[in-house]
Amino acid sequence: MSDAARAPVPEWMDRLRGQIGQVPPSWFSRFLPPEEGGRESAVLMLFGPDAAGGEDVVLTERAHTMRSHPGQVSFPGGSVDPEDDGPVSAALREAEEEVGLRSDGVEVVAKLPQLFLQPSRYVVTPVLAWWARQSPIGVQDTGEVARVVRAPLRELTDPARRFTVTHPSGYVGPGFEVDGLFVWGFTAGLLSKVLELAGLDREWDHTVRRPLPEWLRALGDGPPAQREVRRR
């Protein structure tokens, strides 16, 4: 595909890029990285045009056999390795390894403030990106990824698909349901904040509460990265 075929960054992403620097890091999370320590990592929030004329975002369902957060929905990403040139490089590399993404079709829009995941002590940099020139993606390693889903924003912003998730630990946070995925915790919290800052958020009923599904709890998934997302 030629450069002329590259999809332009949508207006809402330009608006989002401008808004990121206008809010303090604590707006995204009440858990900020410590002055020392923590394992540096990055996730790729990859948005792109969909077939219906809107936009979608790439999500993965973690393999149910993983020791850490099995079955959870996440963004492609992982630890920053010594050979990586920072979090952007790490996010793109991990996306290639997990879903087969070709980085030459990706336009990095911005980096969000670093967020701290207390239980795992990961210091996470969310990398906001636009999929300007698309290529096929899919599960590359079944030991890590069970599914790859391109979730339409029109569905993620549908009030009927949004709710508040509760956990026996006392955790309360935003949730989404899309394409059979139960999105909660760190991923849902970050999505919720980005959609709000981009001006795409629609009013939804925060009093609608849903407990974490039994099947997720049966996988041994506690409220790990979930606690880091600031409660509304």
What would your notes on this structure say?
It is a single chain. By secondary structure, the chain is an alpha+beta fold. The protein has one domain: Nucleoside Triphosphate Pyrophosphohydrolase. The protein is built from 5 helices and 12 strands. Strands 1, 2, 3, 4, 5, 6, 7 and 8 form an 8-stranded mixed β-sheet that branches. Strand 9 and strand 10 form a beta hairpin. The radius of gyration is 17 Å and the shape is globular. The C terminus is likely disordered.
Q: Structural class, please?
A: alpha+beta
Helical content (DSSP H or I, runs of 4+): 10-25%
Rounded to an integer in angstroms, the radius of gyration calculated over CA atoms is 17 Å
Can you give the mean pLDDT?
88
What's the quick description here?
By secondary structure, the chain is of the alpha+beta class. Helices cover 19% and strands 30% of the residues.
Summarize the helices and strands and which ones pair or pack.
Layout: H1 11-20, E1 39-49, E2 55-62, E3 73-74, E4 77-79, H2 87-99, E5 106-111, E6 115-117, E7 122-131, E8 145-152, H3 153-156, E9 162-166, E10 172-178, E11 181-183, H4 185-197, E12 209-211, H5 214-218
Parallel strand pairs: 1-7, 9-12
Antiparallel strand pairs: 1-2, 1-4, 2-3, 2-8, 5-7, 6-7, 9-10, 10-11
Keywords:
four-stranded mixed sheet, 12 strands, Nucleoside Triphosphate Pyrophosphohydrolase, 232 residues, eight-stranded mixed sheet, globular
